[in-house]
């Protein structure tokens, strides 16, 4: 089912019977706005059984809603204000928060590590404190990100070529992958398009070379593991998620294709191993739903808690 | 004295009497085209006494002639073809070559290390072989460059702030220098303008902190020294400038504000020390003239050699 809004077609993949307008029922929209696509889901505000979330009434997919990593939030608020009447409440959060909620089913507690083109670690305590590490993107040294890994690989090819670094299998594999004939052409390729996502597509090449025994590729991945683990450890340490003795249990949600490689050289597994050495209570949680549903569950969880407080009817004043 | 060409004013700073048109005399123009300004000098093709170069007849300064580091050469050739008749010979070279010539007074032998916003090492043998190391700019790991040093400093501030790295004096000094109130604002500052030269202006802050005993700043400079030295060593090794026993003498021209700090923490001096450990024949040469004169001397040297060969009149056929 497709609908049009301001010349753009929004594709509603599925819609439950009677879901249109919710029949007077109060609804939650969960939105995950990215640079390539934007996903929106709709769910009702109804109490649910333990370990189950409310049903998703509808799901829509549209294009980019985050034109600029810095100004993205402002842009989103403008769009939302434009669509909805004044009595609708909305909350805009860092997408790491929605990713955390997609693993904890809406509860803001624990730590999330995202590693795709970029990387960020975000954590929340039960009493509402929060902390972040990394997430300052490529120029400011997010070396565990997909971009960071791939940029180090391309740099290693150049270093081997001009005599500053050891020979590496990455040279042959990278040139083959990009259909280039010499490392000199790699410089042109790198600067032809400043997109970090484009460089980050080389991560599987690095993993393959490391699996084939290449020392340079292996060192790049080991360094990335240290970097990713250090982001999580910094957040856990600052928030005291591990308790006073460092052994308390806390959920760690891991999201992003760098962590989901699931190959022989498993970056995600190594990161968990590295964190668990310092914090044995680390409990790995894989995301159960997509981030847009995580965002909706965040609001759902918040509203259900409010509803339960009202039901208990205790007035301490 | 100012002259106009296609709406742009070229400022001739000085011109010797009778220098206009050279009075039928054959002339050389040496051009140094950069992103902020372009310098052109004019000298005659006359033999000169040893250790002296011909006089500079005129010197002109204009704006940018290198709009794009990749396409710059093509652009220059188009300009030159437009101005001069077909019987004028011209040579376009990497600006590292002009920098080498500015230290060796036109002789293409030895190695040059440039470290300003970017960095490159270039070398030539007497029999015409050449080699390069670094010079692939920021994304491809020129960590000894001014940009590389400053980017590491800014990254260290962010790492200290989010708990991934040790506390450093760079935090206070960098925020003070940029008139920012928190490291969070530093992220915005970094991405507000993608100019590498803008980030590189923070190098003196790193040097000051290292001189004041800050370990993080000190480590950044030590790493830069290793990187710069490794570029030179790669070129020297590949060209065999050091001879078979590694002890032959060769000139090393060092250019750029990173190497000319001339403070207590002297990056250039440390680089020389590091290279000399491997190659004791390294002979430091400071540039005696500006790169535009170096470019002219390059052509002058080439033409004088041709002239001397003609004079010797030997025909081996």
Automatic annotation (TrEMBL), chains A, B:
Q: What is this protein called?
A: Uncharacterized protein
Q: What is the lineage of its organism?
A: Eukaryota, Viridiplantae, Streptophyta, Embryophyta, Tracheophyta
């Amino acid at each position: 089912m497709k609908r049009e809004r301001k010349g753009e077609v929004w594709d509603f993949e599925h819609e439950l019977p009677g879901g249109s307008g919710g029949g007077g029922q109060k609804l939650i929209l969960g939105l995950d706005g990215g640079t390539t696509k934007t996903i929106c889901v709709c769910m009702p505000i109804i109490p649910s059984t333990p370990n189950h979330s409310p049903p998703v009434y509808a799901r829509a997919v549209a294009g980019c809603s985050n034109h600029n990593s810095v100004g993205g939030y402002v842009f989103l608020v403008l769009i939302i204000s434009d669509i909805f009447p004044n009595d609708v409440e909305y909350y805009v959060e860092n997408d790491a928060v929605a990713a955390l909620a997609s693993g904890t089913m809406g509860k803001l507690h624990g730590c999330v590590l995202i590693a795709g083109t970029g990387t960020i670690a975000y954590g929340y305590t039960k009493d509402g404190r929060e902390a972040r590490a990394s997430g300052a993107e490529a120029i400011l040294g997010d070396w565990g990100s997909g971009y960071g890994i791939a940029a180090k690989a391309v740099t290693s090819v150049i270093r081997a070529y001009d005599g500053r670094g050891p020979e590496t299998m990455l040279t042959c594999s990278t040139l083959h992958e990009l259909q280039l004939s010499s490392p000199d052409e790699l410089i042109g390729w790198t600067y032809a398009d400043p997109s970090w996502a484009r460089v980050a597509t080389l991560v599987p090449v690095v993993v393959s070379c490391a699996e084939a025994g290449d020392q340079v590729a292996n060192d790049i991945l080991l360094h990335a593991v240290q970097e990713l683990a250090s982001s999580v450890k910094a957040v856990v340490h600052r928030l005291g998620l591990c308790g006073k003795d460092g052994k308390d249990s806390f959920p760690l949600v891991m999201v992003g294709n760098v962590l989901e490689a699931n190959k022989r050289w498993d970056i995600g597994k190594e990161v968990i191993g590295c964190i668990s050495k310092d914090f044995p209570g680390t409990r790995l949680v894989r995301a159960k739903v997509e981030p847009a549903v995580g965002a909706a569950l965040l609001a759902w969880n918040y509203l259900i808690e409010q509803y339960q407080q009202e039901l208990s009817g205790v007035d301490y004043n």
